[in-house]
Amino acid sequence: ALKLNVHKTTEQAITAAARLIADLVAIRPNAVLGLATGGTMEPLYTRLVEFHRAGLSFRRVRTVNLDEYVGLAPDHPNSYHSYMQRHFFDHVDIPEDAIHIPRGDVEPDRAAAEYSALLDRVGPVDLQLLGIGANGHIGFNEPGTPVNAPTRVVDLLPDTISANARFFTAEEQVPSQAVTMGTAAILAARSVLALATGPAKAESLAAALDGAISPDCPASYLRLHPSCTIIADRTAGARL
Ligand code: GLP
């Protein structure tokens, strides 16, 4: 079933999400965490690093990330590898060999096949963290993605490229493809935590929760999951 928690402020939403992850790691120190990137997650990782400094260990955790841009090597500043190092992994005690992110710098179909096999080996994911695209995507599963899509190479839609251009020096620099965990793998997680903050997410969150369960809004598939928590701030929850 789906739990929805709308918090007054972004900070309260972030803290609630961080607590949920910290509580899981405290109870299950060897949890498999499915991690996400994007602007929404930056303050969440900051909060988790604070929890780590206050004594929370991630020493036995294993992680799998949702996605990576095709064409960006791990050390490219805009790769999701770099993002994760900068915001989280550089500041906590997760062993390097426990971290898994799709490769952006090998032949894309091979990178996807290898990542799919990796997920089968490392899974099941105990908690999958998710952001929601302004167009309703989860991971890089864009509108049009069926519920059971495999981990694969995807073409990014123009609105996703524009939305993510703010992280690059120019829109032309945003890769046109990504390797993403499929909707099937996302929904196979034991629990899902979706986080939405800011007014840009109000429409897609309302479509996800109150619209049809449909490929038009892949985030609507979360309503099919047996254990999904949605945490939003008041601006993201404005249309609910
Ligand atoms: C990105 C990522 C998603 C993320 C979403 C929202 O493109 N692939 O994993 O959840 O879009 O991003 P943001 O938090 O920056 O709005």
Automatic annotation (TrEMBL):
Residues 10-223 form the Glucosamine/galactosamine-6-phosphate isomerase domain. Signal peptide: none annotated. Keywords: Hydrolase. PROSITE patterns: GLC_GALNAC_ISOMERASE. The keyword Hydrolase applies. The keyword Nuclease does not apply. One of its GO terms (molecular function) is glucosamine-6-phosphate deaminase activity. Its EC number is 3.5.99.6. NCBIfam families: nagB. This is Glucosamine-6-phosphate deaminase. It comes from Paracoccus broussonetiae subsp. drimophilus. The gene is nagB.
